[in-house]
Amino acid sequence: MKQIILSLLLFLALPAFVAAQPGAIGNTKTDKKLTAKLEKALEGFNGDVGVYVRNLKTNRSAAVHADSIFPTASMIKVPILCGLFNKIHQGDIRFDQELIYRDSLKYDNGIVGSFRDSTKIALPKIVHLMISISDNTGSLWLQAMAGGGAAINEWLSNNGFAITRVNSRTPGRKEGQAKYGWGQTSPREMAELVAMIRAGKAIDPIVSARMYRYLGMQFWDGEALSQIPPYISTAAKNGAVNQSRSEVVVVHAPHGEYVFCITTKNQKDESWQRQNEGYSVIRKVSAIIWEHFEPKNKWTPAAGSDKYWF
């Protein structure tokens, strides 16, 4: 009888768990004006798209399909970062240790995958390559060091994230991998994960600060970040596969920090040009959010030219 009652209580609690995210549980109010702007901006998109925005100062939010499941693509490297630093915090891994690259680790021809066998490299440099340029071989190496996808997923679950999961090279996640690829998330969850790091609540304040510094070192700045003045501090991670484009960003805006995540899937446009519809909608949404929160701080990206964007 006790087991039945416990199961019933868990079942009844599940919807609240799925909707509630760290840092924003029951505290947000809807920003109706921003929501309307975003809904209009997303009209006619040839695929599925979701957006979540929260002003970290006022706790007002806007959401469009924010709890739908989307591929993470390379945004999965944020959970990998958390899983790795959790191991470091527990003493299982030394942050300053030297690693030895082996050819068996190679996934693609990125920077790490181009190393010669037996190359020595410090762990922090692999972390930097994973976050700043999104190196895939280095990221899979760190995923394994973090205990694999299962350990990272356990950390996510323990911290209130019900949707965000590592799928690739993770037991029991074949169905998720077939549908979403390396990882899966929702706009709300990915935004709130980065907001948790910003707030110093991921693992502990010192660890969060170290992770947040890495998120502030982005090489890929041509989409969401291109719509934010270069003198404004940001922390971000983006991702892309053929039918999906995504980005999560914290913006240290003058009138209050905000976080947002935009994700797409099932895109008809699978091109890899700057004009790809997914990239274009990310830039469009980023500009709308910036102008909504900073109406007197207008800025024209790239002086109206695509000359310096690739």
Automatic annotation (TrEMBL):
InterPro entries xref list: Beta-lactam/transpept-like (IPR012338), Beta-lactam_cat (IPR045155), Beta-lactam_class-A (IPR000871)
Keyword annotations from UniProtKB, A to Z: Hydrolase, Signal
Reaction it catalyzes: a beta-lactam + H2O = a substituted beta-amino acid
Beta-lactamase class A catalytic domain location: 50-264
E.C. number: 3.5.2.6
SUPFAM superfamilies (alphabetical): beta-lactamase/transpeptidase-like (SSF56601)
Signal sequence bounds: 1-18
Top-level division of the source organism's lineage: Bacteria
GO molecular function: beta-lactamase activity
Family designation: Belongs to the class-A beta-lactamase family.
Protein's recorded name: beta-lactamase
The organism of origin for this protein: Dyadobacter linearis
